[in-house]
Amino acid sequence: MADPNTLISSLNIAHGSIIFLAYEGERTVAGPAFHPAGSFGKKMTMDDLIAKQMRITRQENPHCELVSFDRDAANAFQHYVNETLAFAVKRGGFMYGTVSEEGKVEVDFIYEPPQQGTERNLILLRDPDEEKLVEAIALGLGMRKVGFIFTQTISQDKKDYTMSNAEILQAVELHAEGDLKEWVTAVVKLEVNEDGGADVHFEAFQMSDMCVRLFKEGWFERDIQEEIDPKLSRMTKDVVVGGKDTREVDNDFFLVVVKIFDHQGPLSSTFPIENRKSPVTMKALKNHLDRAKGLPFVKRISDFHLLLLLARFLDVNADVPALAGCVQTQATILKDTSC
């Protein structure tokens, strides 16, 4: 309006009329306030972002095609826990053998380290010096460590889990240490049969890739409280399971089933086994050799547990692999253990 004193009534402006305002100059209109934030306005840290990506899913296929147990080695292990320990306390061992290009794992002997087993826990009292001898024997035999085997006690038969959280934690720790993608974890337990009796049952698994990754990156809660459900593994941070954030993961998510076969391997398992209730003596060696007098000497010593006893008196870097190499090739053994 040219005259600011003009009355509105004289301009024919009524209620509902549209008017336009023209003015000179510029002004800045403030937009909505911007605050960097995550979903629902919550500020997210780098750990939050990582947790959102840590989704726990089942792994359908193992890295190993199958695992085959030497009949004598498997029987020697299960017979002890069944007949002597009565599955009342836990027992474990390291499995040694070979891995084929197709991913087939063959277990030819089981080394039982010093240990203390209870109804709930298995504590391995590992002896580095003894394990060096075991590795030297395996090297000479053309074998390597391929997995871990342990027993579940008879009281665990009533539980509703395949493996407990403590068993998962121990198994994945040894799997990560083994540094073998075909690494196998075997479980031996008693199962009630149709007649009401009990049968010894072997199961084999691999820890899933996600399980191994979570362990290596420190996601597993190491201090397992008794009040925690044993079928659940607790994480130190939230993970995503089934679209939900949680810190408790069903142990079955971490297990990948492996097919089991058996075979007759190159070694016997009749010599007394190390680190059991009865110590292995030189008299046991004499008795063993006397019982097999009709066999060639190399055949008489083709037993891992016997080789482990002999290895304590030999050079671990030279004599032990050489002696084991003779057993592998079934060559004639001379006094200096050269073949």
TrEMBL record:
Spell out the InterPro entries in the cross-references: MPN, Npl4, NPL4_C
GO molecular function term, any single one: ubiquitin protein ligase binding
The chain positions of domain MPN read 66-207
The highest taxon in the source lineage is Eukaryota
Provide one Gene Ontology biological process annotation.
Answer: ubiquitin-dependent protein catabolic process
Protein's name in the database? NPL4-like protein 2
Coiled coil (UniProt feature) = none
The record, for Pfam families, names: NPL4
Family, per entry: Belongs to the NPL4 family.
Q: Which GO terms describe its cellular component?
A: nucleus
Stored PANTHER family: NUCLEAR PROTEIN LOCALIZATION 4, NUCLEAR PROTEIN LOCALIZATION PROTEIN 4 HOMOLOG
